[in-house]
Prior knowledge:
This protein is of the alpha/beta class and about 425 residues long. The chain is about 25% helix and about 15% strand. It has one domain (about 1-305): Alpha-Beta Barrel (TIM Barrel). The protein has helices spanning about 65-70, 80, 90-100, 110, 125-130, 195-205, 225-235, 250-255, 260-265, 285-300, 315-330, 355-365, and strands at about 155-160, 165-170, 215, 245-250, 275, 305-310, 335-340, 375-380, 385-390, 395, 400-405, 410-415. The structure holds iron/sulfur cluster (SF4).
Amino acid sequence: MEKSRECFLSVDDEPGSICVKNNRSEGNLFECTPRASFISDFTSESRATDHSSASCQLGSSGSGLKWITQYKNSIKNIEDLSKFMPFADDEKNKLKQVEEIYPMRITNYYLSLIKDFSDGNDPVRKQCVPSFDELTQGSNEEIDPLTEVAMSPVPCLVHRYPDRVLLIVTGRCFMYCRHCTRKRLWGKDKVDPSLDDIKAALDYIKANKQIREVIISGGDPLILSTERLDYILSLVASIDNIEVIRIGSRAPVVIPQRVDRNLCVILKKYSNLWINVQFNHVNEITKESADACAKLIRCGIPVSNQSVLLKGVNDSPQSMIKLCRKLQSIRVRPYYLFQCDQVVGTNHFRTPVSRGIEIIKEMRGYTSGMCVPTFIVDGVKGKGKVPLQPNYLVSLTPRGAVLRSYTDEVFEYKS
Ligand code: SF4
């Protein structure tokens, strides 16, 4: 028997037509059927004065624009992108093939961070512009290498570790990062989980009292309207066993305008809220993105950074040191450096595991410990996160240890 489902409205290209799409077949993460009564997602912030597309021309980051205008004016196809970044005809055709499989979306703000549009090695460009390499499948790559779908006891909830769960509230993002672990969720026809799905996830959390932390992720949760996000946060916060709520978002990096007054007002209400962002290169730290983080911090929210180690973007000690020092200076804690997951379509970004360890070795001791993230390989098939670091322990006995210093000096430490 088909179950009636409620669907939140969500910000989209055409707000008036939202949620008329039907169910899709991607696992059980999202289902949505139309219903007469919706919780409006098209809020006062989205009704703010619209700007003509002319005012969104690059050259200005468009930082004065409202976030919904920024989002709606995003570049969503190769044809539009080619107005800024000339492609040869055959190149354009090939990139359109990539776009068919892996959609693209780039905010004008983020595109403006590319220093030279003709430079294929620009670290910002590599993260947002589709590449033919996405059509190559590496031998160990899978669509869902972390087996998130298999570890979902109910739709939109991943339960891997005993005391925390991941709540996937949307499959949409302000920008589609080409290295994303959840490329499987991208798609023009994909919509957000229904309210029924979210409530089923919350019932699961209530019934499993060992869960103390909920990580709200996506997609990008900040793509939801402020009201809708507040509603979900309030439901999560009302669960007795929940002590901590975390949001994972790239909004401060790719559309810092999203961190506006309305958002701060609602986030401030949750005293147990943490936010993790994803800066991967120092060029992403601008006045706008630093301001967005500062606003969150002023709301009393600890902000940490989870970088992904990306070939040609940040895979050198110098690049990571610059990034992490800059993060520290804006009071964002460098928390994790992730090995790029073995997701289909990301082979060109992946570095050997040894590279991550080498980078940490070049950082530890040479820069403040607060600037050194933990290098993590997320184990395939849901094995969980494995922290890796250079070997500083040469040998261990009941009487002490032989240790290696950051300068490779071996010495004895007596217990
Ligand atoms: S914002 Fe996050 S979920 Fe969205 S595409 Fe980027 S990495 Fe993936």
